[in-house]
């Protein structure tokens, strides 16, 4: 009796938890299927699936959903315009919850799915590290619209000038932190005239990398580093840090990390009467940051790759489609790059079909031919020109500094930056 | 007239092992009834079942006219059945006074409680002297006094004592037995479980000898005290 | 070192929050020897309950009028969840192997987190929480926010009320008796199931108070705040001596202050530059726990296990 009720209860609870999790992902799947159904003109169509891996629930999900639907719109456009005759593209989006282990499982699942030709994603650099090898072994193209850690393309010794491409299947349409951190330091020192920066990071691959580069460049320009500290992702109390910053008399705070933490830091900093701007990378360039931090966010800054998608004439249709379809998430940061990444795949598929008398080779061959086709990409995307250098990095090295003005991110400086 | 407590074919098991295999006995109001028997005979199991801490697998218990087998322990106390458990189980980090107050947990008459508390201190003067002291600091014999005093605080119709003399010095044991005699003289009905058969039989009106879950022998205390079998097995005589 | 008073105050504030949550762990453990690992989520749902009350008040309602209602609303949510968990999840498992309620608690934790995540409007990201006006106030070199004042007042009021209740009320004494010896407590006529429910309810209410305090202090609540807070509060409860309510509060304060000082000053020690800062706070918290448990296995105010009958 005792044992039976134990068993029943435990299973009820476990199933309950699982069901709830499942509900979360199912509702997302539904949305993506709904979006994908707008095509199919001829009946003898081959279906080619483009995989997406991004955080679709939990931390960073606003940005992650922006990736999923950025790809979705590219696919819908390609299908509607019949860009690759005889091929209908579909999207298969998997949720990595911003967890490297989950990302790796998703990569394995995408590789195992014989209808998937390439993958777009992930959002987080830390997750990318766990996925690269899986795609490389399968000879499958992976294009991240947002990974900014230089190591991913140029190897771990990139900083010393010893650049080595580790995975020829890995590409990205976003530029790297090596540029973001430096671009931010340059703006802070030369434009904002800040001289004393306190530098904090969240110890993650992305955040620590960004903060390290900022620190090097800022002091290189002649600025002073008033102090450094690290935080844990998931922390909520930053009072110790705030006291340190206050005591350091820094005139700005640079934060390498995501908005989940920086929105709390800026709020606690301003509440303590420390009215210095918080500046960060694209990880905090999100509307959620402003929504949650409220007034405290005013005047804070973030760099992001590329030029604002909202200022690009080429992206006008994309934005209006995104809005009219009512897709969730933030397209502002990576939606355009996701669209372009998917387009690179679609154009690559067309190229290999053109070279193969308009037929798609068997999937294993198609995948490996696509690696070369994507490497040769050369077209104007909605977020800028798309082509890749010998490391798989984008040649489009545009960056923008945004600042929170009257409760919204406003671009304050765009430019090309080469270090 | 029916007895205060009637136990009919009571069976209790720990998992698959039956520790009490169908025993029947009765306690009349005003009597002292004793259960004796070797270690593991099932005496404690019987008392714990009567007070509701264990659920029987079969049989009937009627106390003061009401069936007890499905009543939770705290309601059994309310019916007037008090149990001073084996090993005393006083609340070590509460004071003596608080232990006694807990004995009267279900009573609302604060004047009566104060009076009974005084009676407990009269019965066991050492408890009165140390009333503000943590009960865990008392000696074994003193803890036994406290356990008995605490059980009496509920003004029970039937007081069950499980091995009150266990682990006590001979002097202390005598004192406890003397107290039981005194309680009997005051008219308290008592169900006494003891390993010290000599002492228990000499003050019991009725006695039952338990052996591996059954009642082997019953009779008046006097009769069993002079039974050859009992003398040999339980009183250590040849 | 002139930041020391401020850092001590920072530790005191966060520590009283840990303490408030820790009381729930310690009361339940003291009475049923169960570690309710879903307690962190009870804290989180309390905060969301209070936020829901606030959101549904007419806009422009003064925060001082709203606050008592939020405490009541959050308290009801937390108490119902805590008591429901006891009644339907833990009670049926009371005689099951220790692992069973533990696994149940983890399942419950996930379910509660997911429920808020999915069903609370906008619950998948941080939600703004109203903050108290006024402040920061300056006492010497120490800055205190309005939210911190609420936190400290709430912690003191809760602690004094609980201590008075446990020491002087009849139910409080029954609670102590049940903690010390549950079977014998039943022999006194105590309905121990009721006592257990009360322990869960008090713990749940205190968690809700902590949840509201956290919302007011940080201006935000999120579906995942229960995990870390729960872990820290559990550490505080063990540090202070699990089962002892004063220990829970003391453990919370010690932990908060230790964390704050460790992350503020350890990096100033020559040779320890790499081991300081906020990123190491959790590590130092657990180092502290291990050191205390090595010296005093029963925790700061815990009784030795031998005292337990
Ligand atoms: N909690 C328990 N679980 C399993 N068996 C038990 C338990 N308590 C007692 N027993 C067994 O039940 C039998 C009767 O024990 P008990 O009632 O304590 O005997 P007594 O009080 O006469 O010494 C013994 O065989 C004992 O081993
Ligand atoms: Mg016994």
Automatic annotation (TrEMBL), chain B:
Matches recorded under InterPro entries: AAA+_ATPase, ABC_branched_ATPase_LivF/BraG, ABC_transporter-like_ATP-bd, ABC_transporter-like_CS, BCAA_Transport_ATP-bd_LivF, P-loop_NTPase
Superkingdom of the organism of origin: Bacteria
Keywords: Amino-acid transport, ATP-binding, Nucleotide-binding, Transport
Domain ABC transporter span(s) in chain numbering: 5-237
GO molecular function, one term: ATP binding
Name of one Pfam family that matches: ABC_tran
Similarity comment: Belongs to the ABC transporter superfamily.
PANTHER family per record: BRANCHED-CHAIN AMINO ACID TRANSPORT SYSTEM,ATP-BINDING PROTEIN, HIGH-AFFINITY BRANCHED-CHAIN AMINO ACID TRANSPORT ATP-BINDING PROTEIN LIVF
Protein name (record): ABC transporter ATP-binding protein
Lineage: Bacteria, Bacillati, Actinomycetota, Actinomycetes, Kitasatosporales
TrEMBL record, chain C:
Localisation: Cell membrane
Residue runs in coiled coils: none
Main location: membrane
Highest rank taxon of the organism: Bacteria
Pfam families, sorted: BPD_transp_2
Transmembrane segments: 12-35, 63-85, 97-120, 149-166, 195-216, 236-258, 279-295
InterPro entries: ABC_BtuC-like, ABC_transp_permease, BCAA_transport_permease
Protein name: Branched-chain amino acid ABC transporter permease
Protein's organism: Actinacidiphila acididurans
């Amino acid at each position: 009796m005792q044992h039976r009720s134990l068993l029943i209860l435990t299973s009820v609870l476990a199933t309950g938890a699982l069901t709830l999790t499942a509900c979360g992902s199912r509702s997302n799947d539904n949305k993506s299927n709904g979006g994908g159904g707008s095509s199919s003109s001829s009946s003898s169509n081959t279906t080619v699936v483009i995989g997406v891996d991004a955080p679709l629930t939990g931390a960073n999900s606003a940005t992650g959903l922006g990736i999923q639907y950025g790809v979705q719109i590219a696919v819908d456009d390609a299908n509607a315009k019949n860009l690759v005759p005889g091929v209908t593209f579909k999207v298969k989006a998997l949720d990595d919850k911003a967890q490297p282990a989950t990302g790796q499982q998703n990569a394995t699942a995408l590789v195992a799915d014989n209808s998937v030709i390439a993958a777009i994603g992930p959002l987080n650099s830390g997750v990318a590290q766990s996925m690269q090898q899986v795609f490389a072994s399968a000879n499958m193209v992976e294009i991240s619209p947002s990974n900014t850690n230089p190591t991913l393309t140029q190897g771990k010794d990139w900083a010393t000038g010893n650049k080595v491409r580790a995975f020829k299947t890995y590409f990205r349409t976003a530029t790297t932190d090596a540029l973001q951190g430096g671009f931010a330091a340059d703006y802070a020192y030369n434009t904002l005239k800040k001289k004393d920066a306190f530098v904090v990071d969240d110890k993650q691959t992305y955040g620590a990398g960004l903060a390290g580069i900022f620190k090097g460049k800022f002091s290189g320009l002649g600025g002073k580093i008033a102090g450094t500290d690290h935080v844990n992702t998931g922390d909520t109390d930053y009072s110790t840090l705030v006291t340190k910053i206050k005591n350091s008399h820094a005139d700005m705070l640079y934060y390498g990390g995501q908005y989940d933490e920086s929105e709390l830091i800026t709020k606690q900093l301003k509440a303590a009467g420390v009215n210095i701007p918080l500046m960060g990378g694209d990880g905090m360039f999100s509307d959620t940051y402003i929504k949650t931090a409220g007034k405290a966010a005013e005047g804070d800054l973030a760099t992001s790759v590329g030029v604002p998608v909202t200022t690009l004439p080429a992206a006008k249709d994309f934005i209006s489609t995104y809005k009219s379809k009512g897709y969730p998430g933030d397209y502002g940061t990576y939606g355009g790059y996701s669209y372009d990444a998917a387009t690179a795949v679609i154009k690559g598929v067309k190229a290999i079909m053109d070279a193969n008398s308009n037929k798609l080779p068997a999937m294993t061959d198609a995948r490996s031919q696509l690696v070369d086709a994507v490497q040769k990409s050369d077209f104007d995307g909605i977020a800028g020109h798309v082509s890749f250098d010998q490391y798989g990095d984008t040649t489009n090295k545009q960056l923008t500094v945004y600042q929170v003005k009257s409760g919204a991110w406003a671009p304050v400086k765009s430019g090309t930056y080469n270090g | 007239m029916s007895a205060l407590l009637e136990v009919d074919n009571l069976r209790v098991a720990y998992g698959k092992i039956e520790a009490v295999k169908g025993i029947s006995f009765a306690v009349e109001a005003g009597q002292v009834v004793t259960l004796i028997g070797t270690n593991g005979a099932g005496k404690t199991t019987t008392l714990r079942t009567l007070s509701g801490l264990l659920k029987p697998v079969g049989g009937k218990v009627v106390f003061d006219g009401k069936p007890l087998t499905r009543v939770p322990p705290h309601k059994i106390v309310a019916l007037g059945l008090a149990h001073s458990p084996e090993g005393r189980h006083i609340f070590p980090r509460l004071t003596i006074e608080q232990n006694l107050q807990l004995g009267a947990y279900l009573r609302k008459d604060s004047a009566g409680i104060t009076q009974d508390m005084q009676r407990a201190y009269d019965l066991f003067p050492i408890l009165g002297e140390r009333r503000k002291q943590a009960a865990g600091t008392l000696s074994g014999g003193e803890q036994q006094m406290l356990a008995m005093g605490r059980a009496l605080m509920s003004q029970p119709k039937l007081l069950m004592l499980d091995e009150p003399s266990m682990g006590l010095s001979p002097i202390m044991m005598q004192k406890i037995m003397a107290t039981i005699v005194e309680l009997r003289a005051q008219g308290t009905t008592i169900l006494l479980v003891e390993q010290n058969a000599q002492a228990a039989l000499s003050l019991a009106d009725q006695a039952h000898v338990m052996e591996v879950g059954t009642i082997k022998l019953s009779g008046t205390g006097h009769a069993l005290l002079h039974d050859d079998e009992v003398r040999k097995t339980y009183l250590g005589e040849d | 070192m002139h930041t020391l008073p401020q850092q001590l105050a920072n530790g005191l504030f966060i520590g009283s929050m840990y303490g408030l949550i820790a009381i729930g762990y310690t009361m339940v453990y003291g009475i049923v020897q169960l570690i309710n690992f879903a307690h962190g989520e009870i804290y989180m749902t309390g905060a969301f309950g209070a936020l829901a009350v606030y959101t549904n008040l007419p806009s422009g309602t003064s925060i001082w009028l709203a606050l008592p209602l939020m405490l009541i609303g959050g308290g009801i949510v937390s108490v119902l969840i805590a008591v429901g968990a006891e009644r339907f999840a833990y009670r049926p498992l009371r005689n099951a192997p220790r692992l069973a309620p533990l696994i149940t608690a983890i399942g419950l934790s996930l379910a509660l987190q997911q429920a808020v995540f999915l069903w609370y409007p906008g619950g998948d990201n941080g939600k703004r929480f109203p903050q108290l006006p006024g402040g920061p106030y300056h006492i010497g070199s120490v800055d205190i926010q309005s939210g911190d004042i609420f936190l400290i007042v709430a912690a003191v009021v809760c602690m004094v009320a609980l201590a008075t209740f446990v020491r002087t009320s009849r139910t409080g004494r029954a609670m102590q008796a049940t903690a010390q010896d549950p079977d014998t407590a039943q022999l006194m006529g105590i309905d121990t199931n009721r006592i257990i429910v009360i322990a869960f309810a008090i713990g749940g209410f205190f968690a809700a108070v902590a949840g509201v305090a956290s919302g007011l202090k940080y201006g935000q609540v999120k579906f995942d705040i229960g995990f870390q807070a729960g872990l820290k509060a559990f550490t505080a409860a063990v540090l202070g001596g699990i089962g002892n309510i004063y220990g829970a509060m003391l453990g919370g304060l010690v932990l908060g202050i230790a964390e704050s000082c460790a992350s503020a000053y350890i990096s100033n020690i020559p040779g320890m530059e790499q081991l300081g800062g906020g990123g190491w706070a959790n590590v130092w918290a657990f180092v502290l726990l291990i050191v205390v448990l090595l010296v005093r296995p029963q925790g700061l105010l815990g009784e030795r296990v031998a005292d337990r009958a």
